[in-house]
Amino acid sequence: MRRPVWGSLLPGNGASAQRRCIIAALSIALAALSAGVAAASPELTSGSEDSLSEVVVTARQRAESLQSVPDSVTAITSTTIERAGIQQVADFANLVPNMTFRETFREGASYITIRGVTTPQGGWAPVTYVVDGVPAGSADAINTGALVGIERIEVLKGPQSAIYGSGAIAGAVNIITRAPSDHLEGEAQAWYGNYGDERGVLMVSGPVADRVKFRVDAFYRHSDGSQEDTDGLGMNFNRTGDVRGKLLIDLAPVQLDLRLHYVDTHAGAAYQEFLPPGDAGSTLIDNFDASPGIQRGIRGYEDVRNIEGSIKAEWNAGFATLTSLSAYSKLDDSLFGTTSWQKPPGASFCGTVGNAGEPPDCAQSSEDNFKVFTQDVRLTSASDQALRWLIGTSYLHREAPNALLVGGAALDPSGNVVAGASPFVNSTYLRHDNFAGVYGQVNYDITHALEATAALRWDQNRYNSTQYTSLSLQTPVTLPDGTVTQRKTDAAVQPKFQLSYHWTDDLMTYATAAKGFRSGFFYSGNFTKAESTWNAVRRSPRDAQPRCFPYQLLGSAVHIDHLDAALPADFKHSEHENQWCRGGAHCTTGQCPDPGCRDRLYRCPGQRRHGRAVHSALHGEFIGGAFFAAYGRLESHLPRRLSLPGRPVPWTRKSV
After folding, report:
1. Mean pLDDT (whole number) for 494-513
2. What is the DSSP letter of 530?
3. pLDDT in tens, 73-84
4. How big is the chain by its Cα radius of gyration, in Å?
5. DSSP character at residue 234
């Protein structure tokens, strides 16, 4: 495990002047070459009337024109990906209305929010994130590596659980990588930016034999970091290597698709700036120039290594295609950083640090590892018929050990700061999740213009969590009630009904009723219950008119019946063993402090450490979300509101 030297930059201090010149020259040459190719072969733009007819998506698990899909779908083509320089999830999230992506204190932790539903800490994203048919096995796996060699990105909004399974409570992200080419070809790109940010992409593709083709995409990044501490060292440095390979084998009528993806990242972590408590810190929140800056004794880092492999087999039987997709992934994420958030000597959670005879700092060390196996088998009918259908079954098994250690740091023989031998926080858990589901969908053309769709999925999820004394997972901890392994089970049925009418080739209206579902999860011994949403898209006389068409918009109402999840603490009403409070006042057993306190989250003492973390008495509606599929224009001017018991929260008008 790589450990940072106290107050030093690891490793490397930026590129040499000679290397920067070479990279800059290569970038200019490649840019000129790309411009020449683009001028020689003009492409359709997103603003042309013919461009949408060229976009084919697989949002409903079969290839269809985007104009024929009665769902809110944002399709980002390879042309847009290249022109917009999309390399990360945040890059395309910025292009999708009503979707946000937020990175946090570490590379592996990120939060997706779509239509107001977000990612709970330690839980599942509000979307099923799929790459070439393989769902991400954790929220940590979503933001690893780079998006290179991507053919298309499809973002579906609204509950999609009937087809995409548990997790698609608010939508789905479907990423399709580029297929190998018929002729040998290669491509190289390079970038250089401020703060020593160097990036390079290499692609090689072509045939191996008459029926075998391959493609390899490689990405490299080295950045010194744009956020510096008071010593001038970059805190959010990043070094990433990413290799993605694909092999297609034609054994007609069977097609084999083998995929392998490897990511290795060493990046900065835990680099938040510390603000003093009380009014002194409050005045600095909106005045960054007056803040003291990031001060550190420990320069935090995170190591992420992720390897994924999948085998997809398709057999075309004429009347239908049988598809089997097996995948395995292993993600290891380790973090080491400060918990004093300042440069010693001084006070910390570990007491005073940095003086003679004291620990050099107060440190945190964490491990979040995942081993995931998924299997999906489905039978899909031919598309050139009035009645189209698919049936399938899926399975996911996940093993996830995680640990958090907090305590006084130590120095190794080389003078590097490492975790101490006696942490006062030692939280280690091993989770096992088993998800199984069956699903089906039917599309029927009632007339040439009118289509009806019905989909249904049933999921059964089993979870268990065991606490251990260390990450060696040798000695389990017995809970006060005598339980060693906590177990939970839930099941859900997710229907979806749609009716769509094509007025012209370019104008469609539709009505949808769908239920979304997101699995529950254990995190640090606490269980968060599963969630469900209902989404109804219908005609409504209250809906606003679009700017460019004299037609009525289709309104959307998302109703959340019951939500037990890690919501913002302002919205929490605790009724169970674990009482979490917002405020700096002292907690009393079973009672939160004055609700006027708004400094930070505290856990009331004297509460049991197991059971449900929070019961959120949230019963509200998201009103809004207009859909209009005509010439690619999506317009909405509906006010949004979130209704909570005794606490109305205003929302701003926003496009969907």
Report:
1. 92
2. P
3. 999 999 999 999
4. 26
5. B
Q: Count the residues in the chain.
A: 656
The two three-digit tokens of residue 305, written as one number: 């290594």
Angle at 146 between CA 98 and CA 2, to 5 degrees: 120
Question: What DSSP state is assigned to residue 446?
Answer: S
Mapped onto helix, strand or coil, the DSSP state of residue 312 is strand
Phi, psi of 450 (to 5 degrees): -110, 125
Coil, strand, or helix at residue 128? Answer: strand
For residue 447, what are the contacts with CB-CB under 8 A and spacing of at least 6?
none
91-144 confidence digits (pLDDT tens): 999 999 989 998 877 776 788 999 888 888 888 999 999 999 999 999 999 989
Contact 351, 386 (CB under 8 A): no
State the pLDDT at residue 325: 98
pLDDT score, position 536: 60
Cα gap 360→353, rounded to integer Å: 6
Give φ, ψ of 571 to 5 degrees. -100, 10
H/E element, 113: strand 110-114
Residue type at position 217: D
CA distances from 591 to 90, 479, 569, 608, 645 (A): 39, 23, 15, 14, 19
Give the pLDDT of residue 54. Answer: 64
